[in-house]
């Protein structure tokens, strides 16, 4: 009988320890979950920047702010959903914007004066200053990559690091033919066309896309194809240049040119990647970019 009582007491003691340990583990898991949930809380709103209302989204609690800059007619959610949802929100504070005239940053309608890339760079810089970020990093895709190059050259003291992909400092004559070949949105694939029509409606999308091509062709004629070649030497931040080997919009000479003309730069080629490599291979892209931003030595 005494042996039974002893065994019961030992069992009760062990069970009590397990329960106590388990509840502590549950508490720690809850705390970690709460921290992770807080980091992943997304906000999206408009803010007045000068006399322009700009729509932005923000996620993360990290001490390294990063601005995502979309491509032509691109928005936060058409161009960067996998990044907004999956970039490391504990190490980074991720901000993405709809450039004025795109997405929810309307009205006004989008225009393409000769300095529209420089104008976007100033708007983007002023947006981050308005949000309280005096120094931040950039992730720019396509047109957003060109804007990033100009932003980093114009405001070097504001930029920590920069990632550009699908970007070019000049327009090659062959690319004029590429742009003209995609002017007609009816020739786009359904997968590419539908999200844009959902954002803009067919008329605004068709008009604005055609205006973008006209604007780029005008820059090609007026500036002999030069978009930002002359300012690359002013870029001082560590820069990661990413290119998809199967990019049909940007010729492979462009990332090489950027690498040769940006002092502290590295080049990474996605062999299977096309122009939208960050959407097609988001896990690999997000990991590469986070490693670069958080600890460049890991590259």
UniProtKB/TrEMBL annotation:
It comes from Temnothorax curvispinosus. One of its GO terms (molecular function) is serine hydrolase activity. Pfam families: Abhydrolase_1 (PF00561). This is Valacyclovir hydrolase. Keywords: Hydrolase. Residues 65-171 form the AB hydrolase-1 domain. Coiled coil: none annotated. SUPFAM superfamilies: alpha/beta-Hydrolases. The gene is LOC112466136.
